[in-house]
Design brief:
Layout lengths: L2 H24 L3 H17 L6 H12 L9 E4 L5 H12 L4 E5 L33 H11 L5 E5 L2 H4 L14
Parallel strand pairs: 1-2, 2-3
Helix pairs in contact: 1-3, 2-4, 3-4, 4-5
Bound molecules: S-adenosylmethionine (SAM).
């Protein structure tokens, strides 16, 4: 592993410890904390994802910490293979919130964006080419069925610029991508 990779892993590990302490505030029982973390680890073990576990856990903590009195649904803009979708669906079901999943289900749109290096300094050339990060609707549904809760999910296939302007549900939520 490169030094940069090692630093990233250490940072991620530290971040997960910090967030697990926050999870303990939501679920004081160790058994419950463990059960939630196991469900998320199952997703990481079986589904190809494009996120750091800490990033999605941060988002899920925000779901748990939003009072029931705040109305609204959760939206995901970009599911890839459905890993983050599966995790978020579990939290959405727990909090009784509908969950809308927007995606082309055929990857990124064609584009001329130039991506050379990430903020961490490594090459990300061609990462964002059209068609990358593709997960079909069947793949995403299959993964959510296996590791999440599909009952709270509404899938909205299509390009964001065409599907999102038509979306008219109450939305108190940030968007996960
Ligand atoms: C980086 S991946 C998402 C990663 C995923 N949330 C995860 O954590 O594994 C980006 C996703 O957004 C979708 N996407 C990107 N731009 C889009 C657009 N303009 N319209 C529809 N879908 C788009 C891609 O199809 C892809 O599934």
């Amino acid at each position: 592993m490169s030094t940069m990779g090692l630093m990233t892993s250490i940072r991620e590990y530290g971040e997960l410890i910090r967030l697990q302490k926050k999870l303990a505030k939501v679920f004081p029982s160790f058994k419950e904390q463990h059960a939630w973390l196991q469900k998320f680890r199952q997703v990481d073990a079986h589904v190809k994802t494009a996120h750091n576990p800490s990033h999605v856990l941060q988002f899920i903590l925000a779901i748990f910490n939003t009072p029931e009195s705040v109305e609204g649904c959760i939206v995901e803009a970009g599911a890839f293979k459905g890993g983050s979708t599966a995790k978020i669906s579990l939290a959405a079901a727990h909090m009784n919130r509908p969950f809308y999943v927007f995606d082309s289900f055929c990857g990124l749109p064609e584009n001329k964006e130039q991506h050379i290096k990430s903020v961490m300094g490594y090459s990300i050339q061609n990462w964002f080419d059209g068609g990358n990060f593709a997960g079909t609707l069947d793949e995403v549904k299959g993964n959510v069925q296996a590791y999440g809760n599909i009952n709270v999910c509404e899938f909205v296939p299509g390009w964001f610029n065409e599907t999102m302007p038509l979306f008219n549900k109450k939305l108190p939520w940030p968007i996960w991508m």
